[in-house]
Write a structure and sequence with these properties.
Helix 2 links the parallel strand 2 and strand 3. The protein starts with a strand and ends with a helix. It is of the alpha/beta class. Bound molecules: 2-phosphoglycolic acid. The site of 2-phosphoglycolic acid has 12 residues, from strand 8.
C-alpha cells in the first residue's frame, strides 16, 4: 500500500494566490515520489483556483462538506459540488468541526454522501484525553462504529481513517503522542474495522496518524506507530517541511 501524506491547511492562507503558490511548490517538491500519495486539503474557497493550475501528482481535498447533493442548506457545500470542481478527497469528522457541534450521526450522513459523490473520505477520530482505566478506548470504538454506521463494504476503498487524538493536535497540545500511543490506538481501530467488515476488507482501509506531525517525528510515527500515512496541520502550510514529510514517507 502506498503511504498517504495529507496536509490540512485549516483556515489558511489569506489569498488564493498564496494557496496556489504553496500548492505548486509542494507539487514540484514531491515530483517522482512513487511510494507516496500526496493530498492537500484546503479551504473550499481556494479549491477552484488550485485546480485551475492543472497540477499532477498532488490531489486536491476539501476540509468538510455537507450531506445531500443540492438543497436548502444555507452556507453549506455538497460533495457533488466539490467533485465537480476537481476535488478528490474530503476530511470529515475533524475534531475542530466536532467541537462546533458535529456529532457521529451527522458525520455518518456526510460520509455516505461524499462516497456516493465519488470522493475519498478521510474520517478523523480521536479521544479528548486518556485515562488510566482505558475509557478512551470505548470512546474511540463508539466514535468509529457510529461514524461508519451508513457505510457498506464496497465503500471501503474510498475510506481512510485518521487517528487524531485531540490532546496532541495543534500548537497548544498538552503533549505529543508517542509512536506507542499511536500504535496502540491504531491496532484497536483496525480491529474494529475487521469486526465490522471482515478481515480482508477491514485491513484494506488505510489508517493514518495526525496530531503535531513534523519532520522530526514523521519517520517513527510511520515505522514504530505502524500507520499507513500522516495528516499534517501546521507543517503542511510550509511547502519545504511538508515536502520533507512526504520524502520521509517515500523512503519507508
Ligand atoms: P497539527 O494539526 O498538525 O497542527 O497538530 C493536525 C490536524 O488538526 O489535522
Amino acid at each position: 500500500m502506498k503511504k498517504i501524506i495529507i496536509g490540512n491547511w485549516k483556515m489558511n492562507p489569506e489569498t488564493a494566490k498564496e494557496a496556489q503558490g504553496v500548492f505548486s511548490d509542494v507539487a514540484l517538491g514531491v515530483k517522482g515520489f512513487r511510494k507516496t500519495s500526496v493530498v492537500i486539503c484546503a479551504p473550499s474557497v481556494f479549491l477552484e483556483a488550485m485546480n485551475a493550475l492543472k497540477i499532477k501528482g498532488v490531489s486536491l481535498g476539501a476540509e468538510n462538506c455537507f450531506f445531500g447533493d443540492v438543497g436548502p442548506y444555507t452556507g453549506e457545500i455538497s460533495a457533488v459540488q466539490l467533485k465537480n470542481i476537481g476535488v478528490k478527497y474530503v476530511i470529515l469528522g475533524h475534531s475542530e468541526r466536532r467541537a462546533l457541534g458535529e456529532d457521529n450521526e451527522l458525520i455518518s450522513k456526510k460520509i455516505k454522501s461524499a462516497i456516493s459523490a465519488g470522493l475519498k473520505v478521510v474520517l478523523c477520530v480521536g479521544e479528548t484525553s486518556r485515562d488510566e482505566a482505558g475509557e478512551y478506548l470505548s470512546f474511540l470504538h463508539d466514535e468509529l462504529v457510529e461514524s461508519l454506521s451508513k457505510i457498506k463494504k464496497v465503500d471501503l476503498k474510498n475510506l481512510i481513517i485518521a487517528y487524531e487524538p485531540i490532546w496532541a493536535v495543534g500548537k497548544n497540545a498538552p503533549r505529543s503522542a508517542t509512536p506507542e500511543d499511536v500504535h496502540q490506538a491504531t491496532l484497536l481501530l483496525r480491529k474494529i474495522l475487521v469486526e465490522m467488515f471482515g478481515r480482508e476488507s477491514g485491513l484494506g482501509v488505510p489508517v493514518i496518524y495526525g496530531g503535531s506531525v513534523n519532520t522530526k517525528n514523521a519517520l517513527e510515527m510511520i515505522t514504530l506507530g505502524g500507520v499507513d500515512g500522516l495528516l499534517a496541520g501546521r507543517e503542511s502550510l510550509d511547502s519545504d517541511k511538508f515536502v520533507e514529510i512526504a520524502r520521509i514517507a517515500n523512503t519507508v
